[in-house]
Amino acid sequence: MVGHRMKRKITLLIALSMVFALLRCIPNGQLKNNFDVDPVQLFDGWQIATTEEAGLLRPKVMEAYEMYWDEDAFYNAKSLLIVRYGKLVFENYCRDVADRDIKGHIQSATKSITSLSFGVARDQGYFPNIDTLLYDIMPEKFDTDTMKQKISMRHLLTMKSGIAFDNDDWSIEMLVNKPADPIQYTLAKPMYAAPGDSFYYRDCDPQLVSSAIERVTSQRLEEIARDNIFTPLGITDYFWEANSEGTTLGPVGLFLKPRDLAKIGKLVAQDGVWEDQQLVSHDWILMSTTSQTGVPGPENYQYGYYWWVVPEVNGFTARGAGGQFIFILPQYDILIVMTSMPSTNDDKVGTTLSEFLPIVEKIIESVIR
Fold first, then answer.
1. What is the pLDDT of residues 240-253, one digit of tens each?
2. Domain coverage including residue 131
3. How many domains is the chain built from?
């Protein structure tokens, strides 16, 4: 027993010494050390411009940069990119410029790419009516609760299915315990409300959307995104997790590089057009990024189809836990991307949308009028 305790103490001491050694490698204890803000031409599909050429006041942009650099307010921030008129005008990787070429988990911002992929399937004629009932797509997965049989694709796309399955439970039960039949397992959960009655943000709804897409199209969600969105945008280095059945995760699990995340934003900002090709229909972009339902809470946020709508700045955003954003301001033709670390599902860690908005507002102030 004494030997076992001694081994534990030695292991702990080694771990602590490694931590202290790492901290000594960080100048003055700083986590943010890369000050470069001007984009580099990489011939990856991005055109580069200066902030001045894009009609932005550089001093104001730098004020936004200083806010993002704050190690207390944005301690886990990893990158900040600004695009205007379709050109990359500002780019910083505050911890290490190498982060530009490293895929990061975009967390729940994955949901917004799920929405785009659903839009593609709809454009291809697979979901002509988003009020189609999930029961009509996969009746064998349902139990005898007739209320559940009224869940439509619209309910799932607006987080209003009524299924009582909290995110913490979903992550453990679906991704760790891995039930044999994830769809049937989810649909066996009780209902907290009738379908369409109440907004309740969680991951089970977009996962059911992914399953429905696979059933109707005979293609995985990831395949639809790859063939119709990623490949045309030149996005080749990505990773998208799947569940125990091999079905693409609809709510989370997509890993992208920051510049590729910005390409997704640029596609949406251009109403689904990329190099004169309509990849996602204009009407789906419009519907998914405008308010489809209110969101409980003091912030006055609204929700489209897996995009958050922010009326106070006339914008909308994909958002993921920890501080992952694709924020689009159509009025100013501005796109802002922020990525953060660590990869976490804890909403208390990292940057919330409300905390990110002051940076957005400062960038709006930079617009030359």
1. 999 999 999 999 99
2. 101-365
3. 1
